[in-house]
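Board notes, transcribed. Complex of a protein with oxidized coenzyme A.
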Amino acid sequence: MSKALEGVRILDMTHVQSGPTCTQLLAWFGADVIKVERPGVGDATRGQLRDIPDVDSLYFTMLNHNKRSVTLNTKSDKGKEIFSKLIESCDVMVENFAPGALDRMGFTWERIQELNPRMIYASVKGFGAGPFEDCKVYENVAQCTGGSASTTGFDDGPPLVTGAQIGDSGTGLNLALGIVTALFHRERSGRGQRVSCAMQDGVLNLCRVKLRDQQRLAHGPLKEYPQYPNGEFNDATPRANNASGGGQPGWVVKCRGWETDPNAYIYVITQAAIWPKLAQAIGREDWIDDPEWATPEARLPKLEAVFAEIEKWTMTKTKFEVMDILNPLNVPCGPILSMKEIAEEPSLRDTGTVVEVDHPTRGKYLTVGNPIKLSDSPSDVLRSPLLGEHTDDILKGVLGMSDAEVAAAKEEGAV
Ligand code: CAO
């Protein structure tokens, strides 16, 4: 079976998380991703949060599968010459440096177009044009400025960031979509184009329903929020605790063992259609016909009591027992799975969502495989490259440099 992006060559100038997740996805789909790294230094994540001395960190290995690594000092004259040839030889260039870094190296969008008019030039920055456009940005800055933090957490506590890397990996997904869209467009136009994704925009896009609620607030309290009917609303979308955010009320409830296991919980959604079955399962058949509880409207001001009653029942069972009982009744629910449980879950191994990879200096480790499954383009997860592992291959194989030219570039410290 051929890979979907076979024949597409990516010049990967990305580092840390947002850019590397994008190019990793493209590599999984079969693109030849050439990761350019500073000689002797490489992507900063190689050395961050190391669990084994002198071995590429899991942070790096889990974000850079299926890529090739070339070291290149793009600030030296020889390095710029080689970099220009790489631009001419690639279809896509991806970067997520601080604003202006590539311009300072002399590679503006205008210059890149001169070198290769078919080039698709894709960037992640923290912000789009505006007051913050020059700022450096990491994940949590994007979560805070994109509306996620102000709407996450408990109403009596501070704003909270979430564990899901929605600013980094979320924006990496957007960038990958922008790139394949531009590649598709290039088939017709013959020209490349600029693809720009701001992390603030990416987070806000994922917080769309919170901007919905901001506007609903002008017309009265948000009745599905825990602040209704007794709490206070001010003039901005509040933090929703564990409320579902959709039209069907949901909450996290305790299960057996919660006193010692921080993940002995399950999320239960009281979808209107399954209310009678849920009421029956928790032993509250009386709620099925009682007008005080029978309709979603009647329950809305009493959601705290509804979930307290559900919890009385769930606390008598493990989260998996609750799942086994409620699932056949079509009650939407999900146990809170720990990372340990996810790592050990056989079905996730079977689908390639959790993959074991072997690495020459680290040995075996687990990673998250491609979350997008194509029926005719399999994604094998191959280990990340060592720093500069493919320098010679790329200089000779992609750029056609001779042994003597490669030796001279090394002598100058360009590679
Ligand atoms: N050869 C020579 N120089 C190189 C090089 C190479 N191969 N690769 C990078 N460099 C240089 C850059 O040109 C830059 O130099 P200047 O400052 O002189 O222009 C320098 O290395 C460092 O780049 P940087 O400023 O991007 O790196 P940083 O560690 O200071 O900042 C980050 C990191 C992530 C805050 C910043 O890159 C950024 O804001 N990126 C955009 C937003 C983003 O993607 N954030 C997600 C990060 S993941 O949480």
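The chain is about 35% helix and 15% strand. Residues 168-189 form the longest helix (22 residues).
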